[in-house]
Structure to design on (166 residues):
């Protein structure tokens, strides 16, 4: 094969594979469910490391509307884990919840009963959890950031670019 055609084909094939095989596509993002339990800081770091393998900036999931919440709830319900970190945290200012992706204050939330309660004055990281007897049906809970949990990474859904040739 002509080398330029080969390169063009490779680039084209790569951008068409917009979410890696083990990632889930929803709207403008790709999501990844971990199987490992990590602290919030380690989870965030690991998302970034995984994203770099695909040349993208990955972070913990930004659950910023009801559609994304519902989609992720359906996705995590298919796993054995009952708790997943998302990107919301109030580490910098107690009570001011921001997304790790953007630093922007959250505008949508899906807190469970009595959450966020900052129990012990030390709960600054959000997870979605299933605990039906307590009314948590993949609702959000604030946890100590040192709690080790599975987590959801996200990265942008790559745009389709024009192939190099053609
Ligand atoms: C993660 O933590 C959960 C809950 O404590 C546990 O059931 C599960 O086995 C852990 N997973 C790993 C991979 O350690
Ligand atoms: Ca807090
Ligand atoms: Ca809490």
């Amino acid at each position: 094969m002509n080398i330029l055609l080969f390169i063009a084909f490779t680039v084209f094939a790569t951008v068409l594979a917009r979410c890696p095989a083990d990632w889930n596509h929803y709207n403008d993002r790709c999501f990844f469910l971990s199987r490992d339990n990590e602290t919030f800081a380690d989870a965030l770091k690991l998302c970034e490391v995984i994203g770099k393998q695909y040349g993208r900036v990955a972070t913990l999931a930004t659950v910023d509307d009801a559609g994304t919440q519902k989609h992720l709830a359906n996705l995590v319900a298919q796993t054995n884990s009952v708790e997943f970190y998302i990107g919301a945290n109030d580490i910098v200012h107690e009570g001011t919840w921001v997304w790790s992706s953007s630093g922007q204050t959250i505008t949508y939330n899906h807190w469970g009963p009595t959450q966020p309660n900052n129990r012990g004055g030390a709960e600054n990281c959000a997870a979605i959890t299933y605990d039906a007897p307590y009314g948590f049906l993949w609702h959000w809970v604030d946890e100590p950031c040192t709690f080790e949990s599975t987590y959801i990474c996200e990265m942008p859904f790559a745009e389709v670019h024009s192939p190099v040739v053609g």
Remarks:
- The longest strand covers residues 136-143.
